[in-house]
Specification:
This protein is of the alpha/beta class. It has 19 helices and 16 strands. Strands 1, 2, 3, 4, 5, 14, 15 and 16 form an eight-stranded mixed sheet that branches. Strands 6, 7, 8, 9, 10, 11, 12 and 13 form an eight-stranded parallel sheet that branches. One of its GO terms (molecular function) is hydrolase activity, acting on carbon-nitrogen (but not peptide) bonds.
């Protein structure tokens, strides 16, 4: 009775929206099982009505009178849930006209591939002016893709890893940069492990002054304990936990890519693990572990599974080549280091389980499109990695739905299926609460209320690939 009352109230709230729409732009998914992700439950035989980009009604099938002209999607035997999130992505951006010509088609393909795997929200972990152009095109419906939250260009230090980052060695240079990023509209700031302790402190102070969150790697010169106390909002790749106890000089000697660094997981005592978990929870710091990335580095079978996926051939030729040729990454990480990473992987999984059990915030992220990490594909791999760590399917799905929404401060608008919320949704052909591989069995996706069937998405991917091959 209580559940019916909730839906009755939802219909009352939705009535004016349905009437105003008069069928135009109204879509209803009928007879679907709803997985709202507000708790571990599923609600069978529901009709979900969407208009103007919002969920305007949820009720038992057959109890909603739809306006003439409403589009209907048969949801019988299917499951509707919130869209997924990649909270650590790298969409190809641009800073000048030459880069715009080169990278815009790749970015469009990346975003489309995300949509085709049920991803409706992406936090880009190293933005550029081009990303704002992409976001506008997606918002206007000119491109098919997820909503973009764009972090600043990456802050690095004297011994920078990448040429495209912003190298800052003088703390006094930080405030003008942060002020500019805030005015431009970047969601937050991204730091790298090469940042000096002095510049790190300046970044954190400026970020607080401009009310910008900070995400990133734990700097070698700062360490995990001080970073957890700094006010950082999210730590990426478990960076910092994974070199705890390694001398700073050793980290700088090879950029932190040594066997010594990765073996630190196996040297970490349970007491130290529990201490770090407690500090993480107390600080309110979230983690984006990118477990699937680590596995890709040391487990060739993981690469093979992606290459053999039926949808792989629909990727841009350049994306396929990047997945098949990981020589660049294999050159950065020696065979010895990759072996150490493989040996440490079970301990990393135990660490994730300990964070989850303690109530620490966890989110899915992929590092796509680092060579080999396919946008969208790796999000599902990451969710399954969370389950491998011992999280239930529901907990693993939370890390890609309601958890990112809470972290971003938009849980009143995203992350669950409820009346009034933005219609960023996926429709699946089987139940992901029973088997997470159901995430691969996509029927279609709603992006800000716009319905895209899997057939339409795959046709768009085929068209992009054909154009790129010309």
């Amino acid at each position: 009775m209580k559940l019916k009352g909730v839906f009755a109230a939802a219909l009352l709230l939705a009535g004016s929206a349905l009437t105003a729409a008069a069928g135009a732009g109204v879509t209803a998914v009928t007879g679907v099982t709803v997985i709202p992700m507000d708790s571990e439950r599923s609600i069978p035989n529901q009709t979900v009505v969407i208009a103007d980009g919002r969920i305007v009604a949820i009720a038992e099938a057959g109890t909603v009178t739809l306006p003439v002209g409403a589009d209907r999607i048969d949801g019988a035997g299917r499951y509707l849930m919130p869209g997924l999130a990649d909270m650590h992505a790298h969409i190809y951006g641009f800073n000048n006209e030459e880069e715009e010509v080169a990278y815009t088609p790749v970015a469009e393909a990346q975003l489309l591939n995300y949509a085709a795997t049920g991803v409706t929200l992406v936090r880009d972990a190293g933005g550029s002016p081009g990303h704002f152009s992409y976001r506008s095109r997606v918002s206007a419906g000119d491109w098919i893709g997820p909503d973009l939250f764009v972090a600043s260009p990456i802050f690095e230090g004297e011994r920078n890893v990448w040429d495209f980052t912003v190298k800052v060695t003088d703390p006094s240079a930080v405030e003008p940069l942060v002020a500019d990023y805030a005015e431009t509209g970047y969601w937050g700031l991204k730091i790298y492990h090469t940042t000096s302790s002095e510049v790190f402190d300046a970044i954190m102070a400026s970020a607080q002054a401009h009310e910008l969150p900070v995400m990133g790697h734990v700097p070698f010169d700062v360490g995990i304990d001080a970073t957890l106390e700094s006010g950082i909002s999210s730590i990426e790749h478990l960076r910092g936990y994974d070199f705890d106890g390694v001398p700073v000089a050793s980290l700088w000697a090879d950029g932190g890519r040594s066997r010594e660094r990765f073996s630190s997981w196996n040297r970490m005592t349970l007491e130290r693990r529990d201490e770090l978990v407690s500090k993480t929870v107390a600080a309110g710091v979230w983690n984006v572990p990118t477990l699937a990335v680590n596995r890709m580095l040391f487990d060739p079978a993981t690469r093979t599974r992606v290459i053999e996926h039926p949808r792989f051939t629909r990727l841009l030729p350049a994306m396929q080549q990047g997945m098949q040729d990981l020589a660049g990454l294999d050159a950065i990480f020696s065979a010895e280091s990759r072996d150490a990473l493989g040996e440490a992987y079970p301990v990393m999984l135990e660490f994730i389980k300990a964070l989850s059990d303690a109530g620490a915030g966890l989110m899915t992220g992929t590092d796509s499109a680092v060579p080999g990490y396919v946008p969208g594909f790796t999000v599902i791999d990451e969710i399954q990695s969370f389950a491998e760590a011992g999280l239930t399917p529901f907990q693993a799905l939370q890390a890609s739905t309601i958890a990112p929404a809470r972290y971003l401060g938009i849980a009143d608008d995203r992350g669950t299926v409820a009346v009034g919320k933005r219609a960023d949704l996926v429709v699946l052909n089987s139940n992901p609460l029973e088997d997470l591989s159901a995430l691969w069995d996509l029927s279609g996706v709603f992006l800000n209320g716009r319905w895209h069937s899997l057939a339409d998405l795959e046709a768009a991917m085929d068209e992009q690939s054909a154009v790129a091959a010309e």
